[in-house]
Design a protein that fits this description.
The complex is a heterodimer.
Chain A lengths: L22 H5 L4 H29 L10 H37 L7 H23 L13 H4 L4 H28 L12 H33 L12 H12 L1 H22 L6 H14 L15 H29 L8 H23 L2 H7 L3 H25 L1 H5 L5 H28 L13 H31 L43 H6 L2
Helix pairs in contact in A: 2-3, 2-4, 2-17, 3-6, 3-7, 3-9, 3-14, 4-6, 6-7, 7-8, 7-9, 7-10, 9-10, 9-11, 9-12, 9-14, 10-11, 11-12, 12-14, 12-16, 14-16, 16-17
Chain B lengths: L13 H36 L1 H8 L4 H26 L3 H32 L17 H35 L8 H26 L1
Helix pairs in contact in B: 1-2, 1-5, 1-6, 3-4, 3-6, 4-5, 5-6
The chains are: A mainly alpha, B mainly alpha.
Chain lengths: ~550, ~210
Amino acid sequence: MNGAEAWAPGPPERTYLNARRGVVSWLTTRDHKRIGLMFLMGSLTALLIGGAMAMAIRLELLSPGPSVMDALTYNRFFTLHGVVMIFLFMVPAIPSVFGNFLLPIMLGAKDVAFPRLNLASFYLYLAGAALALWGMIHGGADTGWTFYAPYSTTTPTQVAPILLGVFTVGMSSIFTGLNFIVTIHTMRAPGLSWGRLPLFVWAVYGASIIQVLATPVLGLVLLLVAAEHTFGFGLFDPARGGDPLLMQHLFWFYSHPTVYIQVLPAMGVISEVVACFSRRPVFGYRMVAASSLGIALVGFFVWGHHMFIAGQSTFDSGVFGVLSMMVGVFTAIKVFNWVGTLYRGAVSFTTPFAYLMGFLYFLVFGGMTGVAVATVSLDVHWHDTYFVVAHFHFIMVGGVMMAFLAALHYWFPKMFGRRYPEGWGLVSAVLIILGFNATFVPQFLLGNLGMPRRYYQYPERFEALNVASSAGATLLAFGFLLILVYLLLSLRYGEKAGDNPWLSKGFEWNTRSPPPEHNFERMPIIEGAPHDYGAPPEVAHATR
Amino acid sequence: MPPAEVRAAHFASAEQQLAAARMGMWLFVASEVLLFTGLFVAYAAYRFLFPETFAQASRHLDLFLGTLNTVVLITSSLTVALAVHFASAGRSKLAAAMLAASIAFGVAFLLVKAREYGHHFETRALPGRHYGLEGLTLPGASLFFTLYFFMTGLHALHVLVGVGVLGWVAARCYRGDFSAEYHTPVELGGMYWHLVDLVWIFLYPMLYLI
């Protein structure tokens, strides 16, 4: 399948990118690949906005006292940073972008089961994002992305449009998840049994289940808070007998599983990348696939660990703590299997592989601190401090972002038929991994010293670590801008990639790159397992 | 005459398309169930905190109208089930008539509900800070009415959407779009309506009876 020589010069081949032309053909498309690309543009815009807000926060925290903004503006910035990054970037980032683009191709299908619903998902995402951005410009919100009552129901800022925006984005997420589950169940090519599904598909499947079953509960609680804020419904108002803790329970019933909506597809990406760049089938395929479902299942029963000091009973906290540690077990299964795959593999050190290394390090470090914060007695000390912020960002930025970048580089030739400059790719990967460490390792230390999160000012003894964190964030931002520049340039000037530049055995490389409009010239028949690199690694290495 | 090709191009067979459509609808129903489950949880929590208040507040609802609406909705589910049955037997006109009857029941339900709401507004049996019902000042009383309005309001919204869906399906039935071989929209529209009915079957005892 080395396509480089297979295509003689001639008229440009018809791909999904040039089969139809014009803006309208994009806006009304039902092609899952084009919808995936539109989601990519949407989520990268969100990443840019959320990143700019993060930089503003780090700028303010550069010095202990007030500096560039007032306290209310600061509160708005960290709220919107959270809302934009989680609901507009992280949740759609891997499933809606790469899931949309790759899932049908990996399954050997022409499209997802419901292409029109898929387009509707994108427009719901746009509408929700527009509503939330409108609210941010007209007053913003200062509640934190968690919208805890009773503050969120009494604040004079514009929480209602932002809540409704997130609600609408949630509907988009539900429809995407629904579409993927049905596609995986009903659209598999002949021969593609469940035991042969690529691990990315298994991971997206687990995430989709959470999207369908947890998102409605978030939608409901956001509606309740919006109604209480706007009409004075008073459901969580202690003065009327309401219980703010109930709001937290309902909120975290979604919002804890939501991190698995983000992390599971990231793990799926890593499974694909690890196989391709070590030239070996994934070690322990069954366990990696099953642990995705295990995380999806257990993820529904751990939400109480956000409320260890919120007035939850000690018994409940203990149960939630133990259940939370179960997630660590399933995650460890995956990590050991990935490392097992790498062992004696024919490793090629490319940009996706660099991000894979970053991912493993951040996931293990972030995961172990996760087990630590799930321990009730330790969490009493760390709760609401920068320790938790750092833990969360290690998993979300360290884990999900590394996987997102790995996916972006690994599948860039698949999506656009061009290559990115490998040298610049590695430089920016190093910048990002270093910058990320410099940003968040000091935050672990700050949290352990007792600096609470979301504070506008801090005592002078925390200054050095805060400066280090802000410096790291700058490095991180440079890394991202570098990627943006060379990827945009590669779209036009990148070297032609051919059909399978990585010589990958993933099912998605069975078709041309970029793929034709309906994915395949003829219906593929799947034989053999995914990531089937056949010969033992020693032999493969010798013939290279 | 049914159209010759009812299969979308990206499916390999009509069976595959039907299986996908059915599964999609079941998943959608599951997500709707979880939407209402959040409210049921809130109801359970507050009923546990204020058992006496909730028992008394429930006496201020009109049991007759609530029961009437229950009968109306259950009957509408029967007519929807009959519509699916007739559609699968290829008797489209009869199916359309059954759907029209269901729509009429749905509208009747909304009218009765509106009458109940009107009465609540008169007596100020309202949510949160608007609450001012005389004769019930126990703590937590406004919570009952917040939940009542949110649950029945969200449900009424679903009835409204359901009436729209059934109207669209009935029109297509009447036009002859469906046949014994292909009548998926009738089946799925019916599923949605049964969900709406089922939610009410939980709401009715929770709010009116216990």
